[in-house]
Amino acid sequence: MLKGSRLWFRYGNRQPWVVEDRTVAVAPGEVLGLMAPSGYGKTTLGKLLAGYLAPTRGSVTVDERSLPKKRYNPVQLVFQNPELSVNPRWRIRQILAEGCPPDPACLEALGIHSGWLNRYPHELSGGELQRIAIARILNPSTQYLIADEMTAMLDANTQALIWQGVLAFVAQQQIGLIVISHDDPLLQRLCDRILLLADDAVSKVDGPAKVFAKTA
Amino acid sequence: MLSISNLGVTFTQYDQGLRRKQLAVITDLDLDVKAGEVVAVVGASGSGKSLLAHALLGILPENAALSGTMRFKGEILTPERCRALRGKTIALIPQSIGYLDPLMTVGGQVQRVAQLAGRAKAEASASVSKTFARYNLSETVRDRYPFQLSGGMARRVLVSTAVVTQAQLVIADEPTPGLHPDVVVETLNHLRELAVEGRGVILITHDIEAALQIADRVAVFYAGTTVEIAAAKDFLSGNLRHPYTQALWRSLPQNEFIPVPGNQPSPEQLPVGCLFSDRCDWVSETCTAERPQLRELRSGWVRCVHAKG
């Protein structure tokens, strides 16, 4: 279980709170949707859960233990701008191998051309690069995945294709998945449970239909 | 206002040592935009949407070569003319905050855009205030750095960069992903307003839903070529001409969420015939033999030999 307990965060002592007293938990194999207006700290919450930022107050734990500082982090975050998460001076082949050698079947499922592997990040489009960022974390060491507007920049067909691949992997490896998105129809399609962050109240919406986990 | 025909973009890459190879990333791209009109350009990633914008602004990398013609107000757009017009007559709303200077406050950057477009310092500052107020960005946001903005705020700052210029043609490169639906509607309405003011607007997006809210016409790109140009109303009325456009419509989560398997052909291995032939249900020998031409059909344009009237 990945759990963020009573998380608070602000950038400085005099800055306003970006995240105020949020508790989020996701179990292995569960798909949780997270929805809120822009500026409600969804992205910051994702970064706290993945250990990119340290919470000002509160704690993040995986199976009751805090996140590791040195080895591969079992909580991986894929965010909206892939160009910010890859080294611009590395070739794609090297980027993919950074965490774990990539699985050819996984590259195939995400529609990654072998021709891309020798290119540099700026020679791929944003959507192509996003698939690289996703392929990089779909490996056995990943236990939890936080997808922050992961397919917001992709066309509808590629979005459906990628989620098909990711949900199959999530179901197979029993990964806990948090989907942060503004796209209500998409969340309804993907998630077991949706959390709506609005003002100070956290309301729960249960039970949208899942399509791919069953078919894939 | 803008007319593009048979645009091609080729990258020259070093393969091994001094051996070079050519990558045709855009093959036959056609598009025209009139003043006061919003034309949406939709398509998969890597279909050449952003490269089209970069070509119009003359900011393609040095290893890119252009073919075909681009005309702006009747005159041929040469790389020199692109350089002279960009930021003044042709403005870009970029795709991500990666295009902003991370070490400069956003207020400073938008102000600089206004000054470079020919406004005096005080006037530029006033227009930044006005624009920020219009986009619901408080005065304190001016002193923030790009990394301190939320995704939605960053997008509104990016829109501001184009609005403070007096550009006649505005190219919005993916202005909506990751925004809350209310903010999307607001951003799109602002783009619509720019068209109502008499500017031409190119809305580059993969979000068909967003495009249909404000666009007059939609151009669908696939693997660097224009496969269809349709009126926005053709999507809801089912008057779509190209099999790829139909597939794209079906794969929306609110429709069927069923993707067409496979991928766009890589620029390294473009087929001889129709670029969509390997994923198409309608494929026949004619399709694989030769590239179809863009032709007029049901008051739109389509690049498919099987589409019927």
TrEMBL record, chain A:
Alphabetical keyword list: ATP-binding, Nucleotide-binding, Transport
Source species, domain of life: Bacteria
Similarity comment text for this entry: Belongs to the ABC transporter superfamily.
Official protein name in the record: Peptide/nickel transport system ATP-binding protein
Pfam families the record matches: ABC_tran
Keyword Transport: yes
Biological-process GO terms, alphabetical: transmembrane transport
Single GO molecular function: ATP hydrolysis activity
PANTHER family membership: D,D-DIPEPTIDE TRANSPORT ATP-BINDING PROTEIN DDPF-RELATED, TRANSPORT ATP-BINDING PROTEIN
Ranges where the ABC transporter domain occurs: 2-216
PROSITE patterns in the cross-refs: ABC_TRANSPORTER_1, ABC_TRANSPORTER_2
Taxonomic classification: Bacteria, Bacillati, Cyanobacteriota, Cyanophyceae, Leptolyngbyales
Keyword Transport: yes
TrEMBL record, chain B:
Highest taxon of the lineage: Bacteria
GO molecular-function terms, A-Z: ABC-type nickel transporter activity; ATP binding; ATP hydrolysis activity
Keyword Metal-binding found: no
Keyword Ion transport: yes
Gene3D superfamilies found in the cross-reference section: P-loop containing nucleotide triphosphate hydrolases
Location (main, coarse): membrane
Subcellular location: Cell membrane
This protein's name: Nickel import system ATP-binding protein NikD
Organism of derivation: Phormidesmis priestleyi Ana
